[in-house]
Amino acid sequence: MKALVKAKAEPGLWLMDVPEPEVGPGEVLIKVLRTGICGTDLHIRDYDGWAQQAVRTPLVLGHEFVGEIVEVAAGVADLAPGDLVSGEGHLICGKCRNCLAGRRHLCRSTVGLGIGRDGAFAEYVTLPATNVWVHRVPVDLDVAAIFDPFGNAVHTALSFPLVGEDILITGAGPIGIMAAAVARHAGARQVMITDVSPFRLELAEKVGVSLALDVSSSTIADGQRRLGLREGFDVGLEMSGRPEALRDMIANMTHGGRIAMLGLPAEEFPVDFARIVTSMITLKGIYGREMFETWYAMSVLLEGGLDLSPVITGRYSYRDFDAAFDDAAGGRCGKVILDWTA
């Protein structure tokens, strides 16, 4: 089968013929239809410092996907050939305290699909049946391909109650924009998103934010005044990983404000902990998705009319992966999709 492989310990990716994966105990074999390109995949292509530590070559990349089950292992129940599925890309141990307590997203021994084991940038991929999410209501294939990052957005956005609240989102990348759409759909009063990219701020406007603010020319305090907020934001969603973004967010939260943090900083940085203490601000780190409560919420949100189509800006055949990766790395894009049937 064809697969997109990190074949060498150097920058680059290679489209190669590799053996079709074999179905192990408790697994299913999935024919891949569409995949989404993630920032993690860009790091692996560039083979930066993180990738050098995280991956071992050769490796088939990819963890954002939708496909059709073609084979199930003996004993696997409730899944069948023909099911349209996406996959939870965090493979857990099932034995640690958190796993046994049902808090599977907190497993300390998580293995990442397309990072710690061969992934979904291929014509076929295997996955434990316990990691499979079946799409039981109609869903656009491009949207189904990005359920993984959509889950990050939903997990972050729904960490705290949103109804009637004023929301600040720092970072208008695809996940930040999806989080903005979720917040608006879930009943937030005002939703402000910040970035320095005019292109991405325009995308954010398409999902109905109250204000898309360019922080290269305006401050968060300026935006707060434009929205008529007198006491600050109630909920903050930090999606950028930028030190200045979190510091400015903390400075513009109301007393008792709550912040969910998904953005990964490149290095440690100082924040005003005196302000966090005296303003009684809650900080919560977010990683991945709750298994499978977040997935249920994603499907219900889409069934209820949430529209993610503005977030998807690029569609390519897997054979044109170089152009697709260049598009994803260029910054003037939302989510970029690879079609494995073209």
Can you walk through the features of this model?
- This protein has 2 domains: 2-146 and 308-339, Quinone Oxidoreductase, Chain A, domain 1 (Alpha-Beta Complex), CATH 3.90.180; 156-285, NAD(P)-binding Rossmann-like Domain (Rossmann fold, 3-Layer(aba) Sandwich).
- Helix 5 crosses helix 6 (174-185) and helix 5 packs across helix 11 (293-303).
- Strands 3, 5, 6, 9, 10, 17 and 18 form a 7-stranded mixed sheet that branches. A 6-stranded parallel sheet has the order 13-12-11-14-15-16, sandwiched between helices. A 3-stranded antiparallel sheet has the order 2-1-4, with no helix packed on it.
- It is α/β, with parallel strands linked by helices.
- A hairpin with a 7-residue loop joins strand 1 and strand 2 (14-17).
- The model has no long low-confidence stretch (mean pLDDT 97).
- The protein contains 12 helices and 18 strands.
- It has helices at residues 39-46, 49-54, 97-100, 141-145, 147-157, 174-185, 198-206, 220-226, 243-251, 273-278, 293-303, 321-330, and strands at 2-6, 14-17, 27-36, 59-60, 64-72, 84-87, 90-91, 111-112, 124-128, 132-134, 166-170, 190-195, 211-214, 233-238, 253-261, 282-285, 312-317, 335-339.
